[in-house]
Structures are given as structure tokens and as C-alpha cells.
Amino acid sequence: MSSARKLFVYDTVLRMHRGGQLQSPTLAFETWGELNEAKDNSILLFGGLSPSAHAASSAADSSPGWWEEMIGSGLPLDTDQYFVICVNSLGSCFGSTGPASIDPETGDRYRLSFPILALEDVADSACLVVDHLGIDSVHTVIGCSMGGMSGLAFCLRHPDIAQRFVSISSATRALPFSIAVRSLQREMIRSDPKWLKGDYDPGDPPITGQRLARKLGMITYRSAEEWVQRFGRERSTDHPLAEDQFVAEFSVESYLENRARHFSGAFDPNCYLYLSHASDLFDLAEYGGSLESGFKRLQLHQALIVGVSSDILFPIVQQRELAAGISSVCENTKFLELDCIRGHDSFLVEMDAFRPVICRFFESCRE
Amino acid sequence: MSSARKLFVYDTVLRMHRGGQLQSPTLAFETWGELNEAKDNSILLFGGLSPSAHAASSAADSSPGWWEEMIGSGLPLDTDQYFVICVNSLGSCFGSTGPASIDPETGDRYRLSFPILALEDVADSACLVVDHLGIDSVHTVIGCSMGGMSGLAFCLRHPDIAQRFVSISSATRALPFSIAVRSLQREMIRSDPKWLKGDYDPGDPPITGQRLARKLGMITYRSAEEWVQRFGRERSTDHPLAEDQFVAEFSVESYLENRARHFSGAFDPNCYLYLSHASDLFDLAEYGGSLESGFKRLQLHQALIVGVSSDILFPIVQQRELAAGISSVCENTKFLELDCIRGHDSFLVEMDAFRPVICRFFESCRE
Predict the structure, then answer these.
(1) Domain containing B142: what range?
(2) Residues 6+ apart with CB under 8 A from B71
(3) pTM of the predicted protein model
């Protein structure tokens, strides 16, 4: 457990966006830098589906975070100037209340009795943390991937609080290709006999389904072009004991196996199902009946939309749509298409491409 | 069982390309049109991974075939002029010997004792059928998808027999993205507890794994763009009894479910594993150590390479590579990039785009 992690218990009932409620949910978060006296220098960061609130190391926790090269003194999210907040999404399993948490009303895990999760709930619960910290104006909301949709939900629902918005490799809503991929990932987990309709033994979870789902994830997070350069048709030297002739033979297969094993033990399967489903459900057009009416609810002073040309999960056409819509209501909107080859994951691994982009955004805020 | 289907038993030992052998394998095939006296008007058609030899209807079998609109009197593969042959791939389960067939030496199904299958074996066994029909010169070899690689193997290994080659949505070898997809499909089947390391009960096969694999197949056979137009974010009206909140909700999910249920009962899982694996293994560069040396073995008089811009499984860059390589050894080579939106499956469904292309090829043969 990260010693930098703070817990905020919302000691009342949280009503959920699509019905149901949670009694006294906990939100786990981390912060970096100092809140200034005017309390107007905060950056609220929303991560993708899988990460915890540990976006970067700190004195209290020296382990590297999921955006380590982006947050710190002199870095793009410069902790000498800004107070950075990252909340573990509601519904996740790294300290915030989710399906793997104990329901105080029953004393058992929520499992599938957890209400349907919406990214609106992720946004609103992050707003409770912001409020708890005494902040009533957030300098910049930043979201990556699913977090970009959570961030957009935040800006829609708390337009008086969100001043600026940076969306990275995200969208106004999921396309049917992405829905199909995520639906299949969920079905892989639900088809694992160990899932037991969500009632799995936490010590013996549906690892097989999770491993398959993670592999499909990796296939859609990266790009065909990257893998040509990285693996080609190279054979694997790192053979597991061959159970049958179909066991991994090419390097790309071993790579997927290693990545999947690393992930599968670390994430609760029911939490995964809820967050994945929430990603499919979010739709800006639900705000007033169309994308146009949705965009009109925003009251941003500045925005930056960044996309990657090789992304197949949140394709560049969706970034253009988001940028065009936001610029129709916020003149100071910039759109950047990065030519990285690592697909959707580029924002996590192509730091040399992303750092200057985020730096320039914050420089322009001070101009 | 199709009454148009003919069976040829090769009444000796077939040595397999990657080791092992089959005793007296059977090849199932169908033919359309008449072989002329010179025996020089035959077209040999190689299908993708899943179809049978029933490419088109005939007097003997009126059910529509998998390329129904392409083969017949006055159609692109014009049976008034040509003698069309389609062989069910060795290793498949529609009459030709494969892992689901009885091994004459044991009296039991081969299952995983079937030797490793290569597309070279698919090509060479089709050549046995050609020979059996008394043909020593094939006018045109046509292959689609995996069949394009089988057809290329045929042209490489029987250069004196193959006069012309048409490749549709195929490649010189699989890219790591496609290997990753197929490897994951195989793992879905192998992870199904009912697979039993290949020893499943034929009356109770690993349907769940097959269904998952087919869904991933459909995701890679079509295109994101098609699905935006076809489904958007439309909700499904055709709800199965909701077992839990994660059951299909969007139209695209119901579509995949329907397609997967249709397929899963019809194809033997072990046969699928063998053919899928063979698709990964094939590599033109194994002929002499490089693609260049491989191309040099061809002795074609004419070739046509057709690809589809929205194909993600056999992307257009691979079609260009194939066309450039063949044109370096065969001057009369044409390359066509079709702008269909139905991805890899376009050759099965966008007949209005494909018919004229194939028509023009055969017209040009007669000029």
C-alpha cells in the first residue's frame, strides 16, 4: 500500500448517475506540490481504466507512478507551480470504493450488487475530493483515455469549477469498434468458470479470462506498425514448457503473455467489468440530446486536445471531433495530432513526444 | 452433406511439409463448368480459413456457396469458358482429412496427433486433385485471405503448373498484429475447459471458446468505419434474457453474438487451431532466405493483386509489397486497391466492387 495515498470518506450517501447509491464511499487520492493561498493552482488528473492514484513518486512513496516523467519539479505538470491531484476512480480497486469493497450494509463485498457505474460518478466523486481540499476552482482538468471522458464529464457537470481542459487520446463517446472490443474483454472474464457470476473466491479469481482480456487490450493499445518494427516474425527464445504445439512461438506472443501475467493478478475482475462498461456508456450527446448541445454546456477558458495517429481504440477522427466541438464554444482551443507509432498507449510510453506538448500548454496559460 | 462434393482419396502416404505424414488422405472438392479438350481452361480457387469447397451452387447442389455471385455462367469466374475447381483445405473439416478425421492407423480421431499443418500441405494436396483430374497446366490460381497464401505456395511449388495468379486480400506472410490476433483466438479455444487438450467430446465441444474466437475474428474482419455507419451507438432490441448487467446492450454486441453462435457449432475446434496456426507459419521468405529469393521462384505469365484499404488483418501495405514483389518477376502484374469499407471481409460481401475487377482480369487474359 502506498504511504503517499490519502483516503477521503464521504460520510453520507452518494447517489449514482444511473440509479442506486453508495453509503459513505471512500476516495483514494494522491497529491504533489502545494496548494497556493488563492487555491487556484490545482491540476486534477484522471487516469485510464487500470491505474491507481499513484501517478508519480514523492517523498512519501518513491516507487515510480504511471505518469512518472510528467509530474514533478520542472516537469510538464510542474509541482513547483501547481498542486496536482490524482484520484483513484470510483469503482476501481486501489483504495476507492468499488465492487471489491465491503458494502457497509451487508458486511460482504458489493460484487455485482454495486450499482451501475457511470463516468459521471467517477467525475462527481473526484469533485467531492476537490471540495474536501477546499478548492472551488480547478486550474486544469487533464484526462487520458477513459480519464479524458471522466474529465469531460467533470467539465460538463462542474463548469464553474473547471477552468481549462486537456484531453489526451480520448473521445466524446465510444465508437462501436471500441464497444465491441471491450464487450468481448468482459465476456472473456464472464466466461471463465471461476468468475461464478461475480462471486469468485478473491484468492482464486478468473485469471484465465483476465489474461485473455488483457491480451486483447494490448492488441488494441498498441499499433500494427510498432510491432512490425519491434517483433517482425522473430521467434521467441523464452519458451514456457510447451503444453501443446500451439503454445507461444513468435516473440509477439511471448510479449503478450508476459504483459498479461503481470496485469492479471493486480486488478479485481469485477472492478474491471464495471469500469469497462462505464467507458461504453458515457456519451456527451446525453447532455441535451446531441453532441452540439453537450459541447454548449462547457464553460472552458482554454482547452488542448491531443491525439495519436496510430491509435485504433480512440482513433484520431474522434480527437478531431472533440477538438472541433470544444473550439466551437471555447476559442482558445488547440488540437495536436502526434505521429507516434505506439498507438493508444503512446501517452504512457512516448514521453519525448508528450512532454513538450503539455509543457507548452502550461506555458501558454501563463502568457 | 453436399451432393456436388467429390472425394479423392490419395491412396498412399502424404509427407507433410513440417514433418509427419498422413496415410491415404481424402480431399473433398467441387467443380463447375467443363474441362476443355486441351485441359488448359481450369481455375483453381483457394478459400479462406473457414469455408468448405462449396463456393457456388450447381445443378447437383442448389444451396448458395461462399462466392456464389462470382462463379457461374456469365459471371467473373465464367463457367461457360472455364472449369473451376475448389478444394476444401487439407486440415479442414468439410470432407478433406483433418484433425477431426479418423486416423486409419488407430481408428480414432487424429486430434492433436495430426501433424503440424502448413499452407504448403494445403497447396500440395490441392495439386494432387489437379493431377487426379488430368490437368497439368492451371490457367489461373485464385486465392482469398489465407487462400491467397495457399495459392502463392501453389505457384511457388508448382511453377510449371500455375500460369496466372490472382491474390485477394492476402500477403507474403503474416504480420505480428495478425499473429497476435490469431494466437489469442487459439488461446480462447484452448482455455475453454471443454477443450480438454484437444480431446473434447464432439457432441459437447468448447463452444464458449469458439464463440469468443469468432467474435474477435469478426472484429478484425470488418472495419471501425463500417460499424459507425451500420450500428453507431444504437441499442439492441433483441435482448437475450439478461443474466447480468453486462449482457449485450448495444446493437454491435448483439450482431457479434448472432454471428458467433451461427459459426461455432459448424466448425471443428481442432481443425480451426491447425488452420489458424498454418496461417501464422507461412512465410515466402523461407524460399531461399528472403522475400526477394521467394519471388524469384515464381514463373507466372500474369498476376493480379487486389487489396482493400480498410483491411486491418491483411493491411493494404502487405498487398503493395506482394504486388511489387510479383511485378519484379512478372511484368504483366496489376495491383488494385479497393476503397471498400467492409475491411478484410469485403471480398465476401462487396461483390459490386469485386466482380468487375475479376471480370477485367479474365478479359485481359483473352486479349
Answers:
(1) 6-174+282-365
(2) B32, B45, B55, B56, B65, B77, B79, B84
(3) 0.96
